[in-house]
Amino acid sequence: MKLKLLLLVIVILVFAAPVYAQAGGTAAPSGNWLASGIGLGIAVGLAGMGQGKVAAAACEGIARNPGARDGVQLAMIFGLAFIESLVLFIWVMLFLRAS
After folding, report:
1. CB 75 within 8 A of CB 68
2. Residue 50 and residue 43: Cα distance in Å, rounded?
């Protein structure tokens, strides 16, 4: 099974490589603010939903076992920081693509 999956990945990568080729001497097209803005909106909306789920799960975990408050709170803060960092990466990509 793993060998079949590996071969499938290799075949996909071999056939997908020419798609990313760029003709010589042409500049990359300028970004599209509308598409980037929609992408940012989707990313922020889904990150907000994820943060809500993280906070709800942490509150439920603390309510079920108050003795594990410190560990649950630390995991929650790390989870929220990672989710927020993804939104910030998308925000940076918005400006890199649109400029």
Report:
1. no
2. 10
- Distance between CA 42 and CA 76 in Å, rounded? 23
Kindly indicate the confidence band of residue 10, based on its pLDDT and cuts at 50, 70 and 90: confident
Question: Is the pTM higher than 0.70?
Answer: no
What are the phi and psi torsion angles at 25 (to 5°)?
80, 0
Measured between alpha carbons, how far is 15 from 55 in angstroms, rounded to an integer?
43
Q: Closest by alpha carbon to 97, among 38, 44, 42, 45?
A: 38
Angle at 87 (CA atoms; ends 12, 45), nearest 5 degrees: 95
CA–CA gap between residue 61 and residue 69 (Å, rounded): 8
Which pLDDT tens digit goes with each residue over 25-41? 555 555 567 777 787 88
CA 97 to chain CA mean position, Å? 16
